[in-house]
Write a structure and sequence with these properties.
This protein has helices spanning about 1-20, 25-60, 60-65, 65-90, 100-135, 140-150, 150-155, 155-175, 180-220, 225-245, 250-280, 285-300, 315-345, 350-475, 480-510. With about 525 residues, it is mainly α.
Length: about 525
């Protein structure tokens, strides 16, 4: 939206500049404005593309791999943006005020294009530096990622940060063109990173076990169970050796650590037994041994061995172990026999063959029944299609009948409307004729009354005029002022007569006015 506003402002300023001059034709001015707008839009498109490339470069960590070169690309982008904003705000470029507007736009576009070209060149070079660093320090970056995944940054924060600083130094060497120096420093760094990996894996795998061993040492438990303690230390040393040799062998490390944890649990239980025996009174030694013997007897009963408590305890254990081994051998033999039966199909018995034959016969019968069902299904489908056709025909007939019925209803409706219209017209004509007759009667009556009134008024006026004339002739000897008065009287009478005549004429006009009867 901002881009559009700037473009519109530019176009408006260009048009205003064109309107201020009357030296060139309007068509030429419009062509110049269009050309200026084209330059402006092309510059904007290139600038937006460079902006996207700059943002992508930040995401690709160009500021880390090639900080100086990438910063130069950003500076060229800023220069292009400044030039673009200059011409966008002022309508002309600040390059050369003695050029025409179109020339200034063209030159501004060229300047912007030059800045963009330089920025793209710097971006390309930055990516080249990044690719060199990633290929040269591939082992280092892989080891760095592994350290981050196993939690080295949290367990050994200080050492991890120092490792990262050394990696940054190698990246900086490559940015400066000192690739060989970066290669020389990489082996020693990898050794230290591997050592940090081993320490981190050891803490993750043996951290809790080492804490338990330290607790055993603190409580001096080793002096009561030295054999179990030595077994625990041996298992722990074995797990530690595997971690040092192959810190990424997760399954092997897991197995070794589980064995060490087993020895730890065994030590705790043996120490408890030793402690219990230590606290046992010499008079209770017999009961202590009988309890242990009863435990062995429970096992022998489970294995269905005769009571062997008449033997020494070691012999009892041997009898139990022998019976367990016998049962195991039997299970192994039975398992092997089952596997042999599964793998050897050639040893099928006659009963199996008979069953197979019977199944084949049943399968044939089922196939025949299936074929019959398929044929029956086909016949049913044909019947169903026939029914569908009949249904379609009935539906079509129904639609045709409905169409005819609707058409007939429409015709009937139009006929009723026509009849109603005709009846209304006839009624309107009758009313019109009646109104005309009544109007003529009223006209005749009014005309007759008006004529009678006019005649009466005329006779009355004539009588009054005769009386006035007679009075005037008799009083001719009266003073002049009387004569004027009489003349006034005569004029008044004449006016009244005239008004009466006008009234009669008005009545005639009203009577003669035609009467209009509207159709209902």
């Amino acid at each position: 939206m901002k881009t559009l506003n700037i473009c519109l402002a530019c176009v408006g300023l260009s048009i205003l500049t064109a309107c201020q001059s009357t030296d060139k034709p309007v068509i030429t001015k419009n062509a110049e404005v269009n050309q200026q707008t084209k330059y402006f839009v092309e510059a904007k498109i290139s600038l937006d593309k460079l902006k996207d490339d700059i943002n992508q470069g930040r995401k690709d960590q160009l500021a880390y791999f090639a900080p100086g070169t990438f910063e130069q690309a950003v500076e060229e982008f800023d220069n292009a943006t400044e030039e673009y904003m200059d011409i966008g705000q002022n309508g002309t470029s600040s390059l050369n005020v003695f050029q025409t507007d179109t020339e200034q736009y063209k030159e501004a576009k060229q300047e912007i294009t030059n800045y963009i070209a330089l920025a793209n060149q710097k971006l390309k070079f930055s990516y080249s530096i990044k690719e060199t660093a990633e290929s040269t320090l591939a082992a280092t970056f892989s080891q760095q990622l592994l350290l981050k995944e196993i939690g080295a940054a949290k367990i050994y924060t200080k050492d991890y940060n120092k490792i990262n600083e050394r990696i940054d130094d190698l990246v900086e060497y490559i940015d400066e063109g000192k690739v060989s120096k970066a290669q020389e420093g990489q082996p020693e760094l990898l050794i230290d990173m591997h050592a940090l990996e081993v320490r981190t894996v050891r803490v993750n795998a043996l951290g809790q076990l080492d804490s338990d061993i330290a607790y055993i040492k603190k409580k001096s438990l080793a002096k009561y169970v030295p054999i179990s303690h030595q077994q625990l230390l041996t298992a722990r040393s074995n797990a530690n050796a595997i971690i040092i040799a192959t810190p990424r062998a997760k399954e092997e490390i897991k197995t070794a650590v589980e064995l060490a944890e087993f020895e730890l649990a065994h030590l705790y239980h043996i120490s408890k037994e030793v402690n219990a025996l230590k606290k046992t009174n010499s008079k209770s030694y017999e009961q202590y041994l009988l309890d242990k013997e009863n435990l062995l007897h429970t096992v022998s009963e489970s294995l269905e061995i005769a009571d062997v408590r008449n033997l020494a305890m070691t012999k009892q254990v041997e009898a139990i172990a022998l019976q367990a081994s016998t049962i195991k051998d039997k299970l192994t033999t039975a398992n092997a026999a089952v596997l042999a039966l599964r793998s050897d199909n050639s040893q099928s018995s006659a009963a199996t063959e008979s069953l197979r034959t019977e199944f084949k016969s049943q399968l044939v019968n089922l196939n025949e029944k299936y074929d019959a069902l398929v044929i029956e299904n086909s016949d049913l489908n044909k019947q169903l299609q026939s029914k569908d056709i009949e249904l379609i025909r009935l539906q079509a007939y129904k639609e045709a009948v409905s169409h005819v019925e609707s058409k007939h209803a429409a015709e009937k409706e139009r006929l009723l409307q026509a009849q109603a219209k005709k009846a209304a017209e006839q009624k309107a004509l009758a009313l019109k004729e009646q109104a005309k007759k009544e109007a003529l009667a009223l006209e005749t009556k009014a005309k007759k009354a008006a004529e009678q009134q006019a005649l009466a008024l005329q006779k009355q006026a004539e009588k009054e005029a005769e009386k006035q004339a007679l009075a005037v002739s008799v009083q001719t000897a009266e003073p002049v002022n009387m004569t004027e008065t009489k003349l006034d009287i005569v004029e008044e009478v004449a006016v009244e007569v005239t008004e009466a005549v006008f009234e009669v004429e008005a009545v005639k006009e009203v009577v003669e006015m035609p009467v209009t009867v509207k159709d209902n």
